[in-house]
Amino acid sequence: MKKITAIIKPFKLEDVREELSKVGVKGITVTEVKGFGRQKGHTELYRGAEYVIDFLPKVKLEAVVSDSQLDECVEAITAAARTGKIGDGKIFIEAVDRVIRIRTGEENDQAL
Question: pTM of the entire structure?
């Protein structure tokens, strides 16, 4: 099993959710986060004063999938989240040793 963590632009969340549902992902966890990468924030004007926004709003989504679903899920996220502009985000993949569904005690693939 693998844990996929994707940092994406907030307005792309619904597109990514739909694509993951199509490939069989049964659940995701979403967190609103702030951060910066190469984009380095941007400058805005408010009431005549210019100020710099260093940390941009992003969405972090996490999903644990079986090894056989991994490539399909990564492709779905990449296709749905891509705008072609700087700041589209990143995908991180980690190994998951064990998953337990608290309600039933099911483990690993059955718990997904």
Answer: 0.84
